[in-house]
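Fold Annotation — chain and its backbone

Fields — amino acid sequence, structure tokens

___
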Amino acid sequence: MRRLSLSLFSIVLFLGLALASPVVEERDLLKLKVLDCWWAACSLAVLISSQNWIESMIRYGNNASMVNTTWPQDGSVQVQIWNPDTLTPVIETAVVANKSQTEDHVDGNWWHDSLSQSIKLLGTQMDIAGIFPNGTFDPTSGSALTGLKVLTGLETASNLTSDYADADAFWTDLARANGSTPVIFNTVSLDSIGVTDPQLGDSHDYAVFNGTVHEDGSKTVWARNSWGSTDEFKLEDVYNNTYQIIHLANWDRLEWQDSVNWTIT
């Protein structure tokens, strides 16, 4: 892995793009009451990897994609997701009138809610861990392995922290997020979590922005918490408090290609 000079500047630049032009961005996603960090982390990880991918998943009634558009502006949109068992594309319809009144921003961009509506609809049509048959999130279940499949149509995999020879090998895989592939780390349980600064949550999924090597040789991990913060963590803190890393099986770089015939509704 080459030495990286990514720093706070690159993160601020990413977060501040909206000041220059209307974009789909990570601040649109904010968890408040629903315990679905696995899904939120997947959405964030895919967005961090490719804004174009997220925008291409959503289409208006005139069949135009949401690429280069601020947010879904029609009353309803079609969303392409994937069956997590077969990895075949599925089209679901999301409706602004059904937007969550607690999650994200009630009067704001609803691209993420359209994705959430879509996986919940799919959960009424098939068994998905983390989704009740009535189409609501199950706060006691769910896996980022499934979430990434639904959002990408690609196979996923996980690596236990205990499988890595040392923290440097662990960091190398986290830093693959620098290459436009979604990477998530899942922390250990409450009885095992240590004290960190910033404090890591227990049994929580974080989307990785990047891995950074500083001039003094120290390594850090920038990650987005779906509860609303972007933080830089010491490598040792993440290594000592992570249960597993979740990613696409082949560390695929997300580059959108239309894979279905969209049906205008």
In short: The mean pLDDT is 87. The longest helix spans residues 37-49. Helices lie at 8-15, 37-49, 51-56, 111-123, 144-152, 167-174, 235-241.
